[in-house]
Amino acid sequence: MYQQTLQIIKEIKQELFKVSLFQSLINALIIFLISYIILMPFKVQWFIAFTPAVLWGIINLIYFIKKRNLEYVESLFPLINEQLRTAKDNLDKDNEITRRLHQDVMEKAKRIKTSFFINFKALNLSILIIVILTSGIFFSSYLTINKIDFNEFNFKNPLDTLKKITSDTSGSGSGEEGKDDIFGKTWEQEY
After folding, report:
1. What DSSP string describes 123-149?
2. Cα gap 27→39, rounded to integer Å
3. In this structure, how many other beta carbons lie within 10 angstroms of the beta carbon of residue 104?
4. Radius of gyration of the chain measured on its C-alpha atoms
5. Which of 14, 53, 108, 161 is the most buried (most CB within 10 A)?
């Protein structure tokens, strides 16, 4: 019976770790997308945005692991309030009271599901933020943005730098001047 209680406690901790890892990955993805959007106008490799995302993911995972313990589980399930910790603390004792406690914990712990540990409002908000950031990346990829080097960035006059970023220095594109077709050939060349 004590081994079963210990097994249930291990399973609960494993599920808490899985949920914490999932939430940390979602949060790290949001940080990656924000970092990527910030770095888009600069001449920087896109994978540099992974650095803050990985750091945030690790810090977030450590925070969730420390925060989510047996006391956290008991706060979500008042039905087993203090029983889970008491059963864990008394695994080495064998008497009628501890046997009833372990039996009671095993019966109540079977009702605990992984979905109880997931905050669906926060998850929905995170997915919405990811969709918005991804749409922003797709939209900004259609804009003509000249990449600038950090050495060329004018910190005294950022508006001047913004004008350099958004100005089109590529010359006339296809369809300009009213004579080019979509392949860049002029009407005079064909006729």
Report:
1. HHHHHHHHHHHHHHHHHHHTS----B-
2. 18
3. 14
4. 29
5. 53
> Rounded to two decimals, what is the model's pTM?
0.68
Q: What gap in Å lies between CA 67 and CA 63, rounded to an integer?
A: 6
* Under 8 Å between Cβ of 85 and 74: yes
At residue 173, the pLDDT reads 46
**What's at 153, amino acid-wise?**
F
Kindly give, in sequence order, each residue whose CB lies less than 8 Å from that of residue 38, ignoring residues fewer than 6 positions away. Answer: 49
Say which residue the tokens 């203090």 belong to.
82
How many helices and strands, by DSSP H and E, does the chain display?
8, 0
Q: Tally Cβ neighbours within 10 Å of residue 27.
A: 20
Q: Which residue has the higher pLDDT, 3 or 156?
A: 3
> What is the residue-wise DSSP string for 32-95?
HHHHHHHHTTBS--GGGGHHHHHHHHHHHHHHHHHH-SHHHHHHH-GGGTTHHHHHHHTTT--S
- Find the Cα–Cα–Cα–Cα dihedral 135, 39, 27, 22, rounded to 10°: 90
